[in-house]
DNA sequence: GCTGCTATGTAACTTTAGTTACTTTTGAGC
DNA sequence: GCTCAAAAGTAACTAAAGTTACATAGCAGC
């Protein structure tokens, strides 16, 4: 069961022996939409390997204000969890299933061991970190260089990509939370994007017309 | 020569055998103030280990606009270089010596080999990535949650910390570049900070009174 | 001490984003 | 179809940040 899932996404990534081990020690888990996978301050006992679905990674400051960092897709892992698991430190992010998702949980005891044994694992870990670093840089670019209307449009198209749908089921308020701004601002800019012909607004739904 | 430098900062980090190898293959380099270490798009042939000094890491968008990501201190390495070196990819950042600095350049051929051979190297690499991820998150927090005046004050105190000086030799324009805003805005907010008694302004110099 | 360049100061204005307060629309559940 | 709560629309205002344009200050080099 785990094996088929693993095979279908990771057979070109990992060596057969590593897949065998993963099958042995990995714990399969299905996440419902909006289910919390990792919370701020959690001490991870392993790392999740995403088999299917989409996970939202958000950052929260002391005052409880949130901002979306990025999304994980199948084939991704959570670098921050890896960090937390290996160093017994705390996780600085929150991970929530954006839709129904499937993961394999790999216990932390194996993580270092596999780094020695499997080149494919080393590559995967390093790649994951790199992808995450790049994702973070993109987030920083977005925050530093783009205006709110551009950020919003990017948010919508990125999310549509991740969700593999051209119509997003979301409210203006939800977007405002993700982007750390107010609902009124989002409503205003969405209306503007609609006037530009890029999107079409419905209740609880946003249809994306241009990518 | 390299060995003494390495010993003084890394003897509690790396195993003796690894230090021996580093001494053999590492290339020592001294950087002048403002010397460019890594440029955007560079394909790294190794990773720099910082022995002393301070390196500024900046991000640039397509239009050539910059923003400071973070600083490296002695004991740090550039995770983005590591990424680039190991995967033969391009580096997404620019690294500039903020003051005279010393580095050891470790050739990329050894990087993976050492991951297998030395636990201390594995820990170091993973730690470096984690530190960098956290640093990036802090940058994101700053951009997303703080107002310009707070960001500026944080910039000044952070930089003073890194440079180990309470008086910074910098112009308003330079700060504006780092923070991706305009000189007028910085001058205005600096004046405000001065009125609050947190700093004292001089020509080409900013004295920090409160930390 | 004069020249000229760079850095800094500052006023006035524009734009963008955030806030408040209220209205209107929509759809689920009765 | 009516009720009601959640979602969305909107106006009016405030605040923060960016822009323009020009004035002044400080210092290096003559």
Automatic annotation (TrEMBL), chains A, B:
One of its GO terms (cellular component) is cytosol. It comes from Lutibacter agarilyticus. This is CRP/FNR family transcriptional regulator, anaerobic regulatory protein. CDD domains: CAP_ED. Keywords: DNA-binding, Transcription, Transcription regulation. PROSITE patterns: CNMP_BINDING_3, HTH_CRP_2. Residues 146-211 form the HTH crp-type domain. InterPro entries: cNMP-bd_dom (IPR000595), cNMP-bd_dom_sf (IPR018490), Env_Response_Regulators (IPR050397), HTH_CRP (IPR012318), RmlC-like_jellyroll (IPR014710), WH-like_DNA-bd_sf (IPR036388), WH_DNA-bd_sf (IPR036390). It comes from the Bacteria. Pfam families: cNMP_binding, HTH_Crp_2. GO terms for molecular function: DNA binding; DNA-binding transcription factor activity. Residues 17-77 form the Cyclic nucleotide-binding domain. Gene3D superfamilies: Jelly Rolls, Winged helix-like DNA-binding domain superfamily/Winged helix DNA-binding domain.
């Amino acid at each position: 069961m785990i094996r088929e899932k693993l095979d279908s996404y990771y057979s070109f990534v990992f060596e057969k022996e590593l897949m065998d081990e993963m099958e042995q020690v990995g714990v399969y888990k299905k996440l419902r939409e909006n289910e919390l996978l990792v919370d701020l301050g959690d001490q991870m006992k392993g790392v999740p390997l995403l088999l299917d679905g989409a996970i939202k990674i958000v950052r929260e400051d002391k005052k409880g204000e949130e901002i979306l960092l990025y999304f994980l897709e199948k084939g991704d892992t959570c670098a921050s969890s890896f960090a937390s698991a290996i160093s017994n430190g705390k996780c600085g992010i929150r991970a929530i299933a954006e839709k129904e998702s499937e993961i394999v949980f790999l216990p932390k005891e194996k993580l270092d061991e596999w780094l020695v044994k499997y080149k494919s694992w080393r590559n995967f870990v390093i790649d994951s970190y790199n992808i995450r670093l790049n994702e973070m840089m993109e987030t920083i670019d977005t925050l530093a260089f783009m205006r709110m209307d551009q950020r919003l449009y990017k948010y919508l198209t990125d999310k549509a990509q991740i969700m593999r749908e051209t119509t997003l089921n979301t409210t203006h308020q939800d977007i405002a939370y993700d982007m750390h701004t107010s609902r009124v601002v989002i409503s205003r800019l969405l209306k503007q994007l609609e006037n530009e012909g890029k999107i079409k607004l419905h209740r609880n739904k946003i249809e994306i017309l241009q990518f």
